[in-house]
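User: structure tokens for this one?
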Amino acid sequence: MKSRLLLALTLFASLSTPLWADEGVSFSHKDWELTCDNTLTCRAAGYSAEEGAGGSVLLTRAGGPDSLTHGRVVLADTGDDDAQHVLIAALCWRGAYNEGYGFWLLDNALQGTSQLITDSGSEYHDGVISEAQKGRGIGDCWSTAAWGWDGRQFVQSSEATTGMCRAIRAGGAWQLPTLVTEVKPAG
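Assistant:
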């Protein structure tokens, strides 16, 4: 009797597997989504935080025991890129009241040598990478810098401090530049 029941369960399970495979499954957790389709191909998509420069990675593995996992990266489309370059940003460090993003310029195929622009960037907007860091928590002194896109590369366009940390006013007492330029498009 037990062997007939076991045989019936095995037969039922083998016949019903295609029925379960027709539905596929999916779930998400924090910045990740996982989906497996009816062919048992699974895809895991990870997303950057909603703030800052964004991107996503997709890992795909077809069903079957000898399948390889393939990865792809998609960066946020800001409309400022050219056809030859991509700008990648990643959080490099975080302190009590500051954080610094690394910004790298790479070729569009993501295979050439990367150029580090800064490891203390704050944001990217309209072709400009900017950096703004507090000298201390109350924000009475700052250091700033910027790099502008000239059509070929990012060129440092400014660097300044707001002077000594003396609690004279929020944001600092003065703007004391050490680099002042105007970035013009490469000809």
